[in-house]
Amino acid sequence: MGEAVALLSAWRKPDCLYWRFQTLGSSPRTPAFLLHDAGTRPDTLPPGMLAAVQPAWTHGRRALFSTTAGSTKGSFVQWLASSNFSRAWYIEDDAVFTGDWSVLFERHMGSTSDLLGFVDTSNVHNYWYTHDCTICEPTPGLVHWPVIRMSRRLAREIIRLAEQGARGHGEVFASAACTRGDAPRWCTIEQLEWDRVMIPNRQTRKECCRLPEVRRGDLP
After folding, report:
1. Residue in 195, 30, 194, 21 with CA at minimum distance from that of residue 109
2. 23-32, 46-55, 85-94, 135-144 — which is least confidently predicted?
3. Nearest C-alpha neighbor of 84 from the set 37, 33, 121, 19
4. Is the pLDDT of residue 140 over 90?
5. Domains of the chain by range and CATH?
6. What is the model's pLDDT at position 216?
7. What pLDDT sits at residue 80?
8. Which residue has the higher pLDDT, 168 or 81?
9. Which of 192, 177, 56, 187 is nearest to 119 (CA)?
10. What number of other Cβ atoms are within 10 A of residue 218's Cβ?
């Protein structure tokens, strides 16, 4: 199969989240799944979205670890690696796109990159390069996970490294997996255009529900 979208959320505040993700399942070529812990009511989901239980990450506690997003990154990688999809979008529930989400997906449909996202290669002295990371030399770039797209083969490579004992924060592990060993022969990284993607920072994550409603629109 082709491409999917996974929204990682417990969906505990559907009244807050619905309006920001009401167009997530609007692309006919991109199935949308809500990965959650359990108990999500289907009637609270936006049209076109299907609920799936979030799988547990079982491939190393210090691989893809996170201090704010819990186990969502590992859960997504595990889900994608065992899925029938060749690639999938990962979206955290504090992300905002000022338009119809399907426009973002369609814009990058022709891309064959294994990791599509905002990858910061300028901050070479970031804390996560030196804190419990075994695959950070040379520095691979910081991946801003709230909105990325990953290939299934990269997800499987991440799991392979984790099973070998590799350690690293989620923001560096995915890019490192794409730039180590034989991976550069097949793995490509592409920068995502961020003109209408808005990611609240750590201080404003709890304010997502207070953001003004974003109306449907088109990218230029």
Report:
1. 30
2. 135-144
3. 33
4. no
5. 3-210 (3.90.550)
6. 39
7. 96
8. 81
9. 192
10. 8
Token pair belonging to 92? 């955290």
Residue 215 has pLDDT above 50, yes or no: no
What letters, b where the CB count within 10 A reaches 16 and e where it falls short, cover 167-186? bbbbbbbbbbbbbbeebeee
The 3 state secondary structure assigned to the chain is CCEEEEEECCCCCHHHHHHHCCCCCCCCCCCEEEEECCCCCHHHCCCCEEEEECCCCCCCCCEEECCCCCCHHHHHHHHHHCCCCCEEEEEECCCEECCCHHHHHHHCCCCCCCEEECEECCCCCCHHHHCCCCCCCCCCCEECCCEEEEEHHHHHHHHHHHHCCCCEEHHHHHHHHHCCCCHHHCCCEEECCCCCEECCCCCCHHHHHHCCCCCCCCCC
Structure tokens at 213: 């409603």
Look up the pTM and report it: 0.87
Q: Which of 169, 163, 159 is nearest to 135 (CA)?
A: 169
**Phi/psi of residue 140, each to 5°?**
-90, -10
**pLDDT on residue 211:** 53
Distance between start and end Cα atoms, the chain: 29
